Each structure stands twice: as structure tokens, then as C-alpha cells.
Amino acid sequence: MKSYKVVVWKLSINRSAKKPTHLVRWSVDGEPFHESFKTKPLADRFRAKLLRAADKGEPFDTVTGLPDSLRGGKAALSFLDLAVKYVDARWAEASAKQRDSMTDALATVVPALVKPGRGRPAPEVLRRALRSYVLPVPRRERERPEEIVTAVRWIEKASLPVAELLEVARAHEVIDALSRRLDGKPTATQTYRRRRAVVFNVLEYAVELEYLGSNPLARVRRKRGKRAVQKVDRRVVVNPWQARELLTAVTYVGGYDRASGRRLRAFFGCLYYAAMRPGEALGLRRSDCTLPASGWGRIELAATRPTAGKAWTDSGEAHDRRGLKQRANGEVRIVPIPPPLVRLLREHVKEFGMAKDGRLFSSERGNVVAASSYSRVWKRARELALVPHQVSSVLAFRPYDLRHAGVSQ
């Protein structure tokens, strides 16, 4: 509905927030609205636009509280359009896993912010349309099946204007969407926090571009469990004898001729003796290693090949090419390695050589070893090295647990 009954009040200051903000308050047909701004000039500018629209006799929308002149242009931008703009702005600098996380969160919340109407596609189809065709930059030109074309056409028409997110009720709808899976069950706390962080950043981006005066999610306080303290679970940590047994058992997996397990023994040794992440070990090159004939050696880590998925990497490979986690681009981490690992690496190079690009660990065809492959070998090695009650426990359940053992001993 539209109304010409508009009252715009003087600026006020909200001192209840941690950082005082400047409020623009007005009413449309008796319904109060307000918008907060970090600085007084921004608030003044917005208030002046409201007054100018009222003086011109423009009708104001009773849902958003905005005149037609402000609902056009920036105010008419849909949340879907905002999501696409955000992905465009962040894609080039984001890691493959960040791209995956970003599109996951947006594909969850975009379908929740829509106008009521008929013909809504199934949730699974909408999610696939967003995750596989609309949001990822390299995938937008792919040929689309008919059901995807229909879903995209529907979401483009139904997506709410960004301006409507100023309503607190809309912000709660966002939180509700982030809190639920497609089947209606609650999401894991960590998944909820990760998705909420993405959407919060999207709305901060909208504030930067002046599509919004403030971030609507900043006004919503809803607790979702305590943040888990990152501690090593002692139950997963193997002792030195168990670690040696596991590394030996790896060599029995796959048989002698196939060598699938033997060619991964030094890989698992890197996780245990050098406390390396799997992605760091997969990216390890011979030139990164100092391997003397006896005594301690050294590894200079500069790159990692984390598993991310072909959809999210620039190369189209399943493994991303990145610098070290939580370190500046190009920064090197020097890791002293004990004699047992030096021997494992020397034996590995002698028997299996290196990939064409100098990597130590590769599949029999020279590719980066898939996570599913080394996980399958590890599962079989546990069955060979551990007693039955340990196999059914969490002891060294994942290859990554070797790293926990390495830093715990």
C-alpha cells in the first residue's frame, strides 16, 4: 500500500549502543520507521531525501516506509542481485573453500527472502540453481536444464528488495533460514556460525555501498550454543608405538604390486613426525626438503593443496593451490624433522621418485592424491594395526589425528 501521510522528525542519537549512532525517524500512515547511521552527515543526507520526496508529493510505501524515488535505483536492488554483486567482489581473492562456504550460505538464505506467491520450485532445485549456476562466477554461462531455468526465473522475480531487510522481522527470517537444513532439522552450531558470518559480511557490504544504512543482523541477538573451545581430544591421540605400527600397516594395504599403501607411508609420516596438515603434505616438493644421510633434516613449507572441489578452484582441479593457512601469502614455515621421517622421505624418493612438478606424493598417474584415496588406505591400516576395540573407537580415526599426536607428544 502507498500513503501520503508522512511525518519526518529531527535527528536523534541512540546512546544505548556500544558506539552511538544517529537515528532518522519518520512515520508513514501512522506506522513508525527508523534508520540508524554511523555518522551525522549520512543521517542528514538520508533525512533530506525523505523530506524532498514528501515535499514533491511522492507516495510512501507502508511496508518499507520509503518513497518511490528511494525504492528505485539502489533501494530496488534485490537480495539476489546483492548476493551476486558480493560474490563478484570477493571471488578472485577468496580461497576455494571460502568460495564453497560463501555460496553455501547465500544459497541457504536467498530462497528465504522472497515475496509470497505461487509456483515456488522445490527447495532442492532452488539450492542447486543458486549453488551450481547463479552464484559461482565460472558457472554462470553453463547450459541450464529446464527446471533450473524455471527456478532462476522464479527467484529473480520473487527476491525481496534489499531495503525490506530493514524490518526486524526480515532479519529474524534470515536467522531462521540459517538455523535449519533443507529437511527442517537444526544445523550444527559451527555450520550456523559460519553461514551467519557470510551473510553478515554481505549486509556489511550493502552498508558500504549505501544500499542499507546499517546492518540488520546487528540488531538481532539470538544465542546458538557456546562456541566450542578448540582442544585436542586425547582419545584420538596414538602413542609412539601405535604410530609406528600404523605406518607399517599402511605398507600392507593394496598389495606389493599396486603399492597404493607403500607410496603413502611417508605422507602419513609427515602428518605424524612433522605435524603437517594433509594439504601441506600433498603440496610438499623435493626442493622444500633438506634430507641428510643421517641426523635431523628440515622442511620449508610454503604451499598447500587442500581438497576443495573442482567447482571452486580456478584451475578446475579438486585441490586448491594456496599459501599456508593463517599466514601471509608467500610466508614460509620451517619445520625441523627427526631422523625417522628423514629416512621415510629418502626411501620414498628412491622408490617412487617425484611428480612432474616436483611433488613428493602423487597417485600412480602423477595426480594429487585424493582425500578419499588416502582415507581409504588409512581405514584399512587401522584394521590391520589396531585391536578390535580400538578399531571401533575414535583412536586415530582420521589421518588428521596423526597431526594431533605429533603436537601432543
UniProtKB/TrEMBL annotation:
<dbReference type="GO" id="GO:0003677">
    <property type="term" value="F:DNA binding"/>
</dbReference>
<dbReference type="InterPro" id="IPR010998">
    <property type="entry name" value="Integrase_recombinase_N"/>
</dbReference>
<keyword id="KW-0238">DNA-binding</keyword>
<protein>
    <submittedName>
        <fullName>Integrase</fullName>
    </submittedName>
</protein>
<dbReference type="InterPro" id="IPR013762">
    <property type="entry name" value="Integrase-like_cat_sf"/>
</dbReference>
<dbReference type="InterPro" id="IPR050090">
    <property type="entry name" value="Tyrosine_recombinase_XerCD"/>
</dbReference>
<keyword id="KW-0233">DNA recombination</keyword>
<dbReference type="GO" id="GO:0006310">
    <property type="term" value="P:DNA recombination"/>
</dbReference>
<comment type="similarity">
    <text>Belongs to the 'phage' integrase family.</text>
</comment>
<dbReference type="GO" id="GO:0015074">
    <property type="term" value="P:DNA integration"/>
</dbReference>
<dbReference type="InterPro" id="IPR002104">
    <property type="entry name" value="Integrase_catalytic"/>
</dbReference>
<dbReference type="InterPro" id="IPR011010">
    <property type="entry name" value="DNA_brk_join_enz"/>
</dbReference>
<feature type="domain" description="Tyr recombinase">
    <location>
        <begin position="231"/>
        <end position="409"/>
    </location>
</feature>
